[in-house]
Design a protein that fits this description.
- The longest helix has 17 residues.
- A hairpin with a 5-residue loop joins β8 and β9.
- About 12% of the residues have low confidence.
- This protein has two domains: 206 residues, no CATH class; 48 residues, no CATH class.
- It is built from six helices and nine strands.
- It has a four-stranded antiparallel sheet, with no helix packed on it. The protein has a three-stranded antiparallel sheet with strand order 2-3-7. Strands 1-4 form a two-stranded antiparallel sheet.
- It is of the alpha+beta class.
Length: 273
C-alpha cells in the first residue's frame, strides 16, 4: 500500500485570476447547455484572484497486489493439465496516481497570464526593396514600452466585465477556471497469466494485461448551445431570413423590423439584450 500527500499546484503571488464553475456558466446553471434568457445561475460572475485554485489531494490510497501460484497436483486430470508442477498462474492489480504537467494548470488556472506578461516584436529597417532589410537592423532599441494592464488598479476580486468580456462585436477573449474539486488522475492496471513448461526448454504462456485511466484533466467548452429543444435552430434560420429582407431595405441587421416575411427571434433578443 502506498499513500502520497500531494499538494495543489498554486501561485505563490496569490494573483492568478480564475473563474469558479458558477462564474464560467454565468446565468446558466452549472452543467447545463447555454440557454439565452433563461436565468438560474450566477448573475454577477467574477474573476477572483487566489493562490489555490483546487483542493490538495490527501486521500490517495494506491494499493498494489500480486500473486503467483504453482499448482502441486501431479496425478489425474489436474496433474496432466498442469504438467505435474510445471505450471505457474500469476495475477496482479495496481493503482497509481499521477500529477498533470504544470502547463495544464497554467492554461486554465489563470486567463492566459494577461497580468504577468508583455509581448514585443522585432521589425527590420527596410532598405527600400520589398523583402529586404539592412544587416544588423534588427534591434530592441533603447527601451521597451511600459507594461500596462486594464484596469489600471488591480484588485483581488475583479469583475469579469472589466478585464475579460467585451462587446459582441469584439468577441475573442476567453474566461478560464478550474473545478475546485478536481480529482487527482490515476491509472489502474491488472494482469493475469498462465505459464506452462513444455518439453525440452520450451515454455507456453498466455497473458492478459489491461489498464484504465480516469480523472484525467480535460478542457470543457461551456459554450455549447441547445439548438433543438429550445427552438434556437428554428430562430437562427428565421434570423437569416430577416437579414435577407432587411438588406432589401438597406438595413444590415437580422432583427425583425415588421417587414413582410420576417419572424420574431426572442432567443436572440434576450441574448443581445
Amino acid at each position: 500500500m502506498r499513500w502520497d500527500f500531494t499538494g495543489d499546484d498554486h501561485d505563490l503571488t496569490n494573483e492568478y485570476s480564475g473563474a469558479l464553475p458558477g462564474a464560467i456558466y454565468g446565468p446558466t446553471p452549472v452543467g447545463d447547455l447555454f440557454a439565452p434568457g433563461v436565468l438560474g445561475g450566477d448573475m454577477d460572475p467574477q474573476l477572483v484572484a487566489r493562490a489555490h485554485q483546487y483542493q490538495p489531494w490527501d486521500v490517495t490510497p494506491q494499493p498494489s497486489i500480486g500473486l503467483a501460484w504453482s499448482p502441486g497436483a501431479r496425478d489425474g486430470i489436474p496433474g496432466k493439465l498442469t504438467g505435474g508442477g510445471k505450471t505457474v498462474i500469476r495475477a496482479g492489480y495496481s493503482l497509481r496516481r499521477f500529477t498533470e504537467p504544470q502547463q495544464y494548470f497554467w492554461n486554465q488556472a489563470t486567463n492566459y497570464g494577461s497580468f504577468y506578461y508583455q509581448n514585443f516584436n522585432l521589425y527590420s529597417n527596410n532598405t527600400g526593396t520589398n523583402g529586404s532589410f539592412a544587416p544588423g537592423s534588427l534591434s530592441l532599441g533603447q527601451s521597451l514600452p511600459p507594461y500596462a494592464y486594464n484596469p489600471a488598479a488591480y484588485s483581488p476580486t475583479n469583475p469579469e466585465s472589466n478585464s475579460t468580456f467585451q462587446a459582441l462585436r469584439y468577441l475573442g477573449n476567453d474566461v478560464n477556471g478550474l473545478n475546485p474539486n478536481t480529482k487527482q488522475p490515476y491509472t489502474q492496471a491488472w494482469n493475469f497469466g498462465i505459464q506452462r513448461q513444455m518439453r525440452g526448454a520450451g515454455v507456453l504462456e498466455i497473458r492478459y494485461n489491461g489498464s484504465h485511466t480516469i480523472h484525467q484533466w480535460l478542457s470543457v467548452n461551456t459554450n455549447e448551445v441547445n439548438v433543438f429543444e429550445n427552438g434556437f435552430l428554428t430562430q437562427f434560420k428565421a434570423a437569416q431570413q430577416n437579414l435577407k429582407i432587411n438588406e432589401q431595405h438597406n438595413i444590415n441587421s437580422f432583427a425583425e423590423n415588421g417587414y413582410a416575411g420576417q419572424t420574431q427571434t426572442p432567443i436572440f433578443d434576450a441574448a443581445f439584450a
